[in-house]
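# step 3/5: fold
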Amino acid sequence: MHFKNHSYWAVQSVAKDENRLIKSIEAYFKTHKRTFTKCKSTLLESYLPFKYKHFYWNLNKEMKTFIAIIPNQDLEGKWREEQYKNCAWLLEIHIYEKLNYDNEPNYDDKVVSNMNKTQRFLHEIFDSIDFKCHLLDEYDDTNRNNRWYHQSDIN
């Protein structure tokens, strides 16, 4: 599978699977000297109108990725993905292929090389997750459809 710039996944799980899901991803991130952050701050506002107690995220500048794990059901009982009630957690992946390379020599070669590393990195994350994942949506920057309105999708 080739990951597009933006993809959204439903992780087949129950709410109690949070620890097991997060620990498996954290274990993989440790091999890259990265962490998965539990967010309880104003970043939660970017998911409005859904209200969450927390979510998990990682921004990896080397791999050009932003990854978030958010609950499918918010604090008010609203489901973000109603048809996936058997999936307590959702996975959001964004690839920013042009970070830090504008106006550099061999720009295209660097993008291709780094995208191959990024694709491998994402495949390994999915290999580390011991849950079935369902692709909800994916798109590249050129044909956004904003299925999930998210503050970071603007600009």
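# step 4/5: annotate
The beta strands are 6-11, 37-39, 55-60, 65-71, 89-95, 133-139.
# step 5/5: archive (pending)
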